[in-house]
Specification:
The protein is of the alpha+beta class and 141 residues long. The chain has 4 helices and 7 strands, in the order βααβββαβαββ.
Length: 141
């Protein structure tokens, strides 16, 4: 498994295909809510198993989001690797903390990675979420 920043047209299409399969098809998120204007300026990441796209994530303005891993590749540490890659990129972009909106069933996953809950439960695309944040350890800290 390897993770890259999606730069080429093919890589960007790979990225959107994973998000479509996980969020639109599997979780019934409306496509107009899944793909938004932030995708134009976000840093997009793809996870590949050989040549096959199996996961995706994005970083936008210090916020990690759209973490998607194909069902048959879950539980193998890929989600953690995607989050860590986003965190490393956030540090490169000058952020000392990151935020994310976690689906309730994913909160324990993020807590194991050092994220803390803040705020109330809210609905995003009809799915209950909680906001979470994490202070990042910068190289000069």
């Amino acid at each position: 498994m390897h993770i890259i920043e999606a730069d080429s047209k093919e890589e960007i299409l790979d990225h959107f295909s994973i998000r479509g399969r996980v969020f639109i098809i599997e979780q019934n998120v409306p496509w107009e809510e899944e793909y938004d204007h932030n995708d134009y300026t976000a840093t997009l990441f793809n996870a590949y198993d050989g040549e096959k796209i199996v996961g995706a994530a994005r970083l936008y303005a210090g916020k990690i989001g759209r973490i998607a891993v194909l069902e048959e590749h879950r539980g193998q540490g890929l989600g953690r690797k995607l989050v860590e890659r986003c965190e490393a990129e956030a540090i490169k972009q000058g952020f000392n903390k990151v935020k994310l909106a976690a689906q309730l069933e994913s909160i324990v996953f993020y807590e194991k990675l050092g994220y803390e809950i803040y705020g109330d439960i809210f609905l995003d695309a009809g799915i209950p979420h909680r906001n979470m944040k994490k202070l990042l350890e910068t190289p000069d800290a």
